[in-house]
């Protein structure tokens, strides 16, 4: 079928071009992240902005360091020490981030769209201002690598002594009419001076490709490991052909990883439901009998707190919304030719800058983040927490078990693992980018 034979209506053209793109994905050899996406599936939002989704409920993030608050619901017969209480707040905050990270784009744009691929050095900054005495929560995001694409981020509130840092890289694979995305990287949440939590990132897949209505579903497991020993495993499932609900999960919380590995030890708590909707918590004793269920989190009832970002005219050319302004407007207008033209201008400008740097012998440097070898990572609790959870410290998919066959499959001989870490001093010394 030729394009000339297609009806001139926008719907028919869109369906035809989607079919072509679907076929391209199915036959493409290599890393799918390098495949050029056609204009009609692009989002007007750069991937650097996605870091804000970790804290669209900043009240839940800051509640993790409220030592005077008792986690609710509270079960009789359960001994709540300060560490367990905080761990429950951490788990609830994490579950609250999932709808923002993996579902909100589908709801706001009709179906899943591909975010704009950030250029090297692109940044995104903003803040949430709270009532006293909670101060201000800041969000920083930087594209620290382009090949492969890696986004690093930091979210912190100095008044409340809560800080999050992490990075994300995605590797895509197409099979069985689904796009599978393995995430590399992790998040580290620090509360106060000593408590820290390692959070791994789930694998996800894009369903609905054949119907030209893509959406995200999570799969596999996420692990949360705390400094005090508490350990959570979150397992994701989706809607099956005959049963189940979309965006389903089950989380089990244990006193330690050792308790998790001991088949005779019951979890302290079991949480189940939909991460995009309602979830319920039981004690480990009550879960099998579905006795005494209590609401854990209701994503539909929690309004998000929108990040405050300064006007585009006040932004640097490196900041996402100013850099992609013309492209974003063309996407919103549905002007495919304008999308292609404006996107090409921006990308060619960046290629020219990289070429000039190379010819001048200048090595490009990151702005606020450093790539740190794992054996030199003394500023975070990553090594200790990974050891407690028996998770790989190598550059492998997030949540890979240390010593597993899956780990060995991804290892590169003689390559020392390195991870991106936030350098607070660099931000404190920043003079060009402001919030």
Automatic annotation (TrEMBL):
GO terms for molecular function: oxysterol binding; sterol transfer activity. GO terms for cellular component: cytosol; membrane. GO terms for biological process: endocytosis; exocytosis; maintenance of cell polarity; piecemeal microautophagy of the nucleus. It holds the Pfam family Oxysterol_BP. InterPro entries: OSBP_sf, Oxysterol-bd, Oxysterol-bd_CS. It comes from the Eukaryota. Belongs to the OSBP family. This is Oxysterol-binding 4.
């Amino acid at each position: 079928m030729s394009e000339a034979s297609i009806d001139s209506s926008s719907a028919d053209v869109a369906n035809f071009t989607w079919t072509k793109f679907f076929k391209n994905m199915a036959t493409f050899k290599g890393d799918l992240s390098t495949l050029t996406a056609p204009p009609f599936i692009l989002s007007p939002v750069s991937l650097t902005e996605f870091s804000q989704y970790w804290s669209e409920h900043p009240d839940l993030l800051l509640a993790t360091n409220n030592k005077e608050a008792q986690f609710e619901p509270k079960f009789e017969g359960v001994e709540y020490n300060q560490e367990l209480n905080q761990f429950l707040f951490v788990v609830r905050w994490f579950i609250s981030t999932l709808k923002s990270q993996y579902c909100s784009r589908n709801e706001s744009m009709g179906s899943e769209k591909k975010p704009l691929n950030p250029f090297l050095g692109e940044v995104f900054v903003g803040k949430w201002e709270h009532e006293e005495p909670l101060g201000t929560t800041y969000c920083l995001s930087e594209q620290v690598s382009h090949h492969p694409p890696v986004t690093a981020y930091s979210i912190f509130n100095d008044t409340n002594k809560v800080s999050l840092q992490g990075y994300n890289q995605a590797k895509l694979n197409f099979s069985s009419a689904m796009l599978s995305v393995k995430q590399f990287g992790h998040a580290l949440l620090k509360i106060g001076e000593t408590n820290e939590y390692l959070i791994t990132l789930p694998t996800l897949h894009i369903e609905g490709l054949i119907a030209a209505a893509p959406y995200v579903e999570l799969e596999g497991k996420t692990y949360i490991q705390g400094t005090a020993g508490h350990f959570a495993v979150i397992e994701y499932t989706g809607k099956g052909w005959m049963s189940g609900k979309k965006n389903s999960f089950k989380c089990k919380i244990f006193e330690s990883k050792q308790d998790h590995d001991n088949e005779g030890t019951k979890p302290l708590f079991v949480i189940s439901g939909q991460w995009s909707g309602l979830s319920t918590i039981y004690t480990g004793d009550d879960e099998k009998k579905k006795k005494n269920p209590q609401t854990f989190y209701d994503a539909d009832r929690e309004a998000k707190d929108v990040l405050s970002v300064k006007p585009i005219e006040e932004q640097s050319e490196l900041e996402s919304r100013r850099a992609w302004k013309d492209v974003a407007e063309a996407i919103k207008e549905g002007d495919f030719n304008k999308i292609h033209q404006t996107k090409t201008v921006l990308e060619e400008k960046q290629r020219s800058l990289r070429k000039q740097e190379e010819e001048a012998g200048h090595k490009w440097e990151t702005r606020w983040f450093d790539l740190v070898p794992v054996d030199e990572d003394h500023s975070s609790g990553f090594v200790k927490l990974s050891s407690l959870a028996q998770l790989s410290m190598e550059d492998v998919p997030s949540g890979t078990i240390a010593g597993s066959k899956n780990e060995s499959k991804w290892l590169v001989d003689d390559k020392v693992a390195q991870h991106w870490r936030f350098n607070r001093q660099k931000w404190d010394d920043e003079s060009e980018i402001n919030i």
